[in-house]
Design a protein that fits this description.
310 residues; alpha/beta; Rossmann fold; L-2-Hydroxyisocaproate Dehydrogenase, Chain A, domain 2; three-stranded antiparallel beta sheet; 14 strands
């Protein structure tokens, strides 16, 4: 039986942290790829040597050659520059679109049957670039967005109410960034709406902190951006696909008419399993909620229109 393989493009903080998370789950082989000689090899070797301590038996390796990713089941694209203090997601667009386009074409050549998960920012627009450059169907080009954003909001709600984070369910939709969308009526603690437990003002305060979650971390770290939570969110997506869990998660997805949105990418609830996205979940939104989601999508559409042809 063929051992399943996940390749991670970019061996920086997010990529290396994701590699460690996946190999410690011990269900896939992992390949770390980076253009910097020695970087992926050194990090992979360091992680590999923790095997006898942690108790995993799968292999993790590092390389500078894309050919070593051949026949991957999933390829995660983390490569691209990280957001720095004062840098907007639009600043990233100009640089990272070229990187993601080049990587996606390599993926389609070496692993034509794989699923791509995009982590590079701005993730909604970069998911569109990966979709176009790879030629993969939309169910096999998915972006990290709502899984991370929802975790950030859930952690803040849990802290506020002194409850377990695992008891909080709060899907975050829309653009990953300033225009992310939170509908409080969908946010619950053990099935109870948070609107019954928190004031409207407190919900708005926590939502705003989640919206600024990445920027808050960048401001504190000064020279880098978040990587622990993003890698955890990505690992959950990888596991859902390879284990065929059919878990419902909010992910950046190419929409072709769902929610009245055409040819753009935003975070919506999807069912993840074998082959990637198995279903796009259509929430019953009020006219006002639907308009809010469509306005968020319009922000991404403007980004997409500014991207050079991939």
């Amino acid at each position: 039986m063929k051992t399943r393989k996940v390749s991670i493009i970019g061996a920086g903080n997010v990529g290396a942290s994701l590699g460690q998370r996946l190999i410690e789950k011990d269900f896939v082989d992992v390949v770390l790829v980076d253009i910097v000689e020695g970087l992926p090899q050194g990090k992979a070797l360091d992680i590999l040597q923790s095997g006898p301590i942690i108790g995993f038996s799968h292999r993790i390796s590092g390389t500078n050659k894309f050919a070593d990713t051949a026949e991957s089941d999933i390829v995660v694209i983390t490569s691209g520059i990280a957001r720095k203090p004062g840098m907007t997601r639009e600043d990233l667009l100009r640089i990272n679109s070229g990187i993601v386009s080049t990587v996606s074409k390599e993926v389609s050549f070496f692993s034509p049957n794989s699923t791509i998960i995009v982590v590079a920012n701005p993730v909604d627009a970069m998911t569109w670039v990966a979709h176009q450059a790879s030629g993969f169907s939309r169910n096999r080009t998915i972006g990290l967005s709502g899984v991370l954003d929802s975790a950030r909001l859930a952690s803040f709600i849990a802290l506020e109410l002194s409850v377990s984070p695992s008891s909080v369910s709060c899907p975050v939709l829309g653009e990953h960034g300033a225009n992310m969308v939170v509908f409080p009526r969908f946010a619950k603690i053990n099935g109870k709406p948070i609107t019954e437990l928190l004031s409207k003002e407190k919900v708005e305060e926590l939502t705003q902190r989640a919206i600024n979650g990445g920027a808050e971390i960048v401001g504190l770290l000064k020279t880098s951006s978040a990587f622990y939570a993003p890698s955890a969110a990505t690992a959950r997506m990888v596991e859902a696909i390879l284990a065929d869990t059919k878990e419902e998660l909010p992910c950046a997805t190419v929409l072709l008419g769902e929610y009245g949105i055409e040819n753009t990418v935003i975070g919506v609830p999807v069912r993840l399993g074998k082959g990637g996205i198995q279903e796009i979940i259509n929430l019953e939104l009020t006219p006002t909620e639907l308009k809010t989601l469509q306005q968020s999508a319009e922000s991404v559409r403007r980004q997409i229109l500014s991207i050079p042809t991939v």
